[in-house]
Specification:
152 residues, alpha+beta, two-stranded antiparallel ribbon, 49% helix, binds zinc ion
Length: 152
Amino acid sequence: MNGFDTGTCLPADSVPRAKRELAERAVIFFSRELGIDPPPLKWHKGARLTGVTSIGAPRDCVGMLNHDGSISLDARLEGDKLIETIAHEVKHAQQAKSDPLFSGYCRGARALEAYEREADRFAEDAPRRFFNQTAKAVFAPDTVGAHLKGRW
Ligand SMILES: [Zn+2]
C-alpha cells in the first residue's frame, strides 16, 4: 500500500465542529490565494510514513495530499499549526495540478525537495494572512471602533 500507513480515518463528525469549520474556511481561503478549487478535506489520527513514497506528506506527517486530490489532516492539530498545515497541503494540491508527475516522485528526488520548500514558504506566514482576513470579515470597518475602541 505505497509505503504509507494512513492511520485511522475519522468520520468528520468525530472532529469538533468549530475545528472543522475553521479548517474548511482555511482550505477555501488558501485555494483562492492560489486560484484552484478547494480540495475536499478528510481527517485522520496517527498517519505515518513507512516507506519511500512521501509526496504531499510533511516530515511529521500531520497532513497529506491524497492521490484522489483530497487533503488529510491530523485531527489533533490546533491553532496556527492547523492553519500552516492546511496552507502547506493546499500548495501541494496546486503543485499536483500543474505537474502530472507530482505523485510519482520518490523521497529524496530534487523536484520533491523543491516542492516541499515551496510549500513550506507558502505556509510560513499563513496564519497571519488567514486570521487577518477573518478579523476583517468579522469586524466591518464601521464597527471596529465600537468593538475595539479604536485599537487595531
Ligand atoms: Zn509537504
